[in-house]
Recover the amino acids of this structure.
């Protein structure tokens, strides 16, 4: 059965059509409908362009130059494509989808929202429908055909809108990927030791859209954590994975509440926070953050804080820089204790640790250990027998304190 322009339809046929709308409504339209509409096309293009300019704030500007030319061409192609589709009923006659995909991409690049573009489509559709309906009625087109014409036109607009939305989403994804690449490049430059040229860092920061702060601190955490931690970091933090670690540069890290923000972000995952530095010295903070991360890994599972702050663990960081040297100090300075029986070694070790920590104050040592002061004096006497006069040498005491730290760390990590 051939398609007809249908000038004498009954109300029953209208009701039947409303119950079973075709998937491709333009297939039910007679080519004569397009013939009736085409003479008004040039004026309609002008009306649609004006409706978009007046009705959509993002387009409320003089339609001049490339911008105005592109808007007009887009309207002409869309309306002309619709009439060609009605004439043929062939979906292959739809305007090339990539045109509208690219239009969506261009909207993002030009700084307009997807909603603005979809609003422009809706404004154009409303004006077009009014003009098409008037022309169809003048051509004595029947009510059923008017309904199908409306369905065809809005289905057509849906096709164009979907293509543009896809293009907009693609461009968003590409832009996000490009931005992340630029931010990763900036993180790499800030992390380098020796430092990168300052001009390179400043240029990379501008390209990444990140303002270099007066002060910052590096936060380091494990590479497999970003999907969880990165999303909880404050929005002004620069973050990207580099090799086996993820680094985040935290602006103004000493600001009130900043520490709490970072602790909430890591939530139990090992992380290290470097010291506060000026941005040209960012690599120094990165180095401390890496060492602090190692301490956090060692302490995970024993109640130690997940976020290790470098400024609060400087002695441990110093020992971590050269672990072998620390082991050598511990081996040499604690040798007298290794000759004792395990029970005596444990008691004298804890006494030595407390005695060094309290600068030899017997009562303070006794209070910490929960023993009588006389017991402390007796144990200190045993320590003097073991270590001799060196126990009164300030340098030797410092080395003993370092040795005890190394021993504690070794015991904590299971390397004892």
């Amino acid at each position: 059965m051939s398609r007809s322009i249908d000038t004498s339809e009954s109300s029953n046929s209208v009701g039947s059509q409303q119950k079973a709308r075709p998937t491709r409504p333009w297939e039910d339209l007679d080519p004569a409908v397009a013939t009736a509409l085409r003479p008004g096309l040039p004026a309609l293009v002008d009306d649609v362009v004006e409706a978009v300019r007046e009705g959509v704030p993002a387009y409320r500007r003089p339609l001049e130059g490339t911008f105005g030319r592109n808007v007009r061409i887009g309207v002409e192609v869309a309306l002309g494509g619709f009439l060609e589709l009605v004439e043929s009923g062939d979906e292959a006659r739809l305007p090339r989808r990539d045109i509208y995909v690219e239009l969506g991409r261009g909207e993002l690049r030009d700084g307009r929202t997807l909603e603005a573009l979809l609003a422009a489509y809706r404004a154009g559709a409303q004006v077009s429908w009014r003009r098409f309906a008037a022309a169809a009625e003048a051509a004595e087109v029947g009510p059923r055909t008017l309904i199908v014409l409306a369905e065809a036109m809005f289905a057509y607009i849906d096709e164009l809108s979907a293509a543009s939305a896809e293009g907009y989403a693609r461009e968003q994804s590409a832009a996000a990927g490009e931005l992340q690449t630029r931010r990763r490049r900036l993180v790499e430059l800030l992390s380098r030791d020796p430092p990168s040229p300052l001009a390179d860092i400043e240029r990379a920061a501008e390209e990444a859209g990140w303002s270099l702060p007066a002060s910052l601190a590096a936060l380091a955490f494990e590479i497999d954590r970003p999907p969880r931690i990165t999303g909880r970091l404050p929005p002004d933090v620069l973050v990207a994975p580099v090799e086996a670690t993820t680094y985040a540069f935290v602006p103004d890290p000493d600001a009130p509440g900043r520490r709490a923000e970072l602790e909430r972000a890591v939530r139990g995952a090992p992380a290290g926070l470097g010291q506060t530095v000026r941005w040209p010295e960012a690599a120094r903070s990165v180095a401390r953050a890496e060492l602090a991360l190692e301490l956090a890994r060692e302490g995970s599972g024993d109640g130690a804080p997940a976020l290790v702050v470098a400024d609060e663990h400087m002695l441990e960081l110093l020992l971590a820089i050269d672990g072998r040297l620390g082991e050598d100090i511990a081996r040499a300075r604690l040798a007298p204790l290794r000759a004792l029986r395990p029970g005596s070694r444990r008691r004298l070790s804890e006494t030595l640790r407390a005695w060094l920590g309290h600068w030899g104050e017997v009562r303070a040592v006794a209070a910490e250990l929960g023993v009588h002061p006389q017991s402390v004096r007796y144990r200190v006497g045993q320590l003097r027998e073991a270590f001799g006069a060196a126990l009164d040498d300030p340098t030797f005491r410092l080395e003993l304190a370092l040795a005890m730290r190394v021993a504690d760390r070794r015991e904590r990590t299971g390397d004892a």
About this structure: The mean pLDDT is 84.
